[in-house]
Design a protein that fits this description.
It holds the Pfam family Alpha_adaptinC2. It is a peripheral membrane protein. Belongs to the GGA protein family. It is found in: Early endosome membrane; Golgi apparatus, trans-Golgi network membrane. One of its GO terms (molecular function) is phosphatidylinositol binding. This protein has 14 helices and eight strands. The chain has a five-stranded antiparallel sheet. The chain has a three-stranded antiparallel sheet with strand order 4-7-8, with no helix packed on it. The chain has three domains: 132 residues, Serine Threonine Protein Phosphatase 5, Tetratricopeptide repeat (Alpha Horseshoe), CATH 1.25.40; 132 residues, Methane Monooxygenase Hydroxylase, Chain G, domain 1, CATH 1.20.58; 169 residues, Sandwich (Immunoglobulin-like). The longest helix is centred in the middle third of the chain and has 52 residues. The chain is of the alpha+beta class. It is globular and about 105 Å long. α1 packs antiparallel against α2.
């Protein structure tokens, strides 16, 4: 057995497949797991229970590998597994990874993104499972999913097996064996020859059916890809903004639904290099045109000429601002040349405002990840309400957790905003986080950020994050321009 000498069990296959020390995907163990799912009467029920536990792991690599196993099972275990995975019992376990009430506060962002991608893919490919549609719609309504993700270009499939050149199943050897058996006068040999002929005919029929199915699917993929590309080219040639028609939306949905068919074809075609290359090429073309369509739709929904130029001005301003530390304001000197460039906030506007961390209620807005590496996760969380008596001030909490085996110390967060806004950072709850203890919930460093934006412009924030993780010193400066709109931030 590939994963050790102990008897093969669901737990042993999955433990090896999701080991954080794996340097690459252990497809021998992944295949062993989903083959056992197919063989056992209760395989799907056992599998989803074990997978849920692994996906909720604080170890990012373990959770991501568990999601790879889940997708492999979806591609190889058929209707029984689909039905079990689409039940609320399992869907709720996936949703717990996203919600702060359960594991969302410390789940790595890569794991959250992958879970959302998996659920979104199921809404496209499992149209006959209403609970999947309902669960994903609920996540969107509650703000955990802001927009549909791009589906991964990666095919979740095992690498092709190495076939020995002198395989006893080569057609030439079969023909020699059959000729020898037919020449024999032994009844047993003749019976063996009869079985060999029947099995050969059956194999040939199955091979022919697979080829016909592959050709039919590839033809449909090629046709759909070509149609969508031609529609996109028409819009590019006219220079007009994309206005998706019902037919274009239906065509894009059909392209999305064809992807799992390509996954299954690739899994069944690993021994035919030329056919596999054709499938992978078709998948690449399909993915490119679907992503191009979705990018144009997103640009149409989010961009405007005047807003873009104003945003570019704010980026330039932001790069010249000085960072604010704990308890300070963004008081970089400015010399406005017109009223639109002046801040409507007096410099001391936020000075006397203080918000206790215990009084803050979390909103349903999706947190923004600042840093997520090596088990250290820092993110921005948005409060539901403005401070009492200050309805125009947004409250944001910087939360940092440590799920690694090393300690974190010397934590410092600084922020700067454009001159039309003001920012104040209250003192952080601490500067150090101990190594992760699996028996206790991970502790957090929390810091309240207050933000005033009287002109209600698009929020842009430049931050500097410094900390020491073990012996490694981090000094990171970045800019955030993906804040929710201002009305959502202040809760009215």
């Amino acid at each position: 057995m590939a994963c050790g000498d102990s008897p093969a069990t669901f737990e042993s296959w999955l433990n090896h497949a999701t080991d954080p020390n794996n340097q690459e995907d252990r497809w021998d163990c992944i295949q062993g797991f989903y083959q056992l799912v197919n063989q056992d009467t209760d395989g799907p029920q056992i599998a989803v229970r074990l997978l849920a536990h692994k996906i909720q792991s604080p170890q990012e690599k373990e959770a991501l590998q568990a999601l790879t196993v889940l997708e492999a099972c979806m591609n190889n275990c058929g209707k029984r597994f689909h039905t079990e995975a689409a039940k609320f019992r399992f869907l709720n376990e996936l949703i717990k990874v996203l919600t702060p009430k359960y594991f969302g506060a410390w789940t790595p962002q890569k794991v959250k993104d992958r879970v959302i991608e998996v659920l979104y893919g199921w809404t496209l490919w499992l149209k006959d499972e209403p609970k999947v549609q309902e669960a994903y719609s609920m996540l969107k309504k509650q703000g955990f999913v802001k927009k549909d993700p791009k589906l991964s270009d990666k095919l979740i499939m095992a690498p092709p097996p190495q076939r020995p050149p002198d395989s006893v199943f080569d057609q030439e050897d079969k023909a020699k064996l059959l000729a020898r058996l037919l020449k024999s006068s032994s009844p047993e040999d003749l019976e063996t020859a009869n079985r060999l002929i029947k099995s050969t005919i059956k194999e040939e029929q199955e091979r022919t059916e697979k080829v016909l199915k592959r050709e039919s699917t590839l033809k449909e993929v090629e046709s759909s890809t070509k149609q969508l590309r031609e529609l996109l080219d028409q819009h590019r040639s006219t220079g007009t903004p994309l206005q998706p028609s019902d037919d274009m939306k239906a065509l894009c949905e059909r392209c999305d639904r064809l992807r799992p068919s390509l996954f299954r074809l690739a899994s069944d075609t690993v021994e035919d290099d030329a056919a596999l290359a054709q499938i992978l090429s078709a998948n690449d073309e399909l993915t490119l045109v679907v992503n191009a369509y979705k990018d144009q739709v997103r640009r149409r929904e989010s961009n405007g000429g005047r807003e873009r130029s104003k945003s570019e001005e704010e980026v330039s301003e932001l790069q010249n601002q000085q960072f604010s530390g704990s308890g300070s304001l963004s008081l970089a000197p400015k010399q406005p040349n017109d009223l639109s460039g002046e801040s409507l906030c007096p410099p001391q506007f936020l000075k006397n405002i203080f918000v206790s961390l215990e009084t803050i209620k979390s909103s349903q807005l999706e947190p923004i990840t600042l840093y997520d590496q090596g088990g250290v996760h820092a993110s921005l969380h948005f409060a539901k309400d403005s401070p009492p008596g200050h309805p125009g001030v947004a409250v944001v909490v910087i939360s940092t957790v440590n799920t690694s085996a090393l300690d974190v110390k010397d934590f410092l967060f600084q922020a700067a905003v454009p001159k039309t806004m003001l920012v104040k950072l209250q003192p952080a709850s601490g500067t150090r986080l101990p190594p992760y203890n699996p028996l206790l919930p991970p502790p957090a460093i929390s810091q309240v950020l207050l933000l005033a934006n009287p002109e209600k412009r698009k929020v842009r924030l430049r931050y500097k994050l410094t900390l020491t993780h073990g012996d490694q010193h981090l000094n990171e400066t970045r800019e955030i321009d993906c804040f929710p709109d201002w009305t959502s931030l202040i809760g009215h």
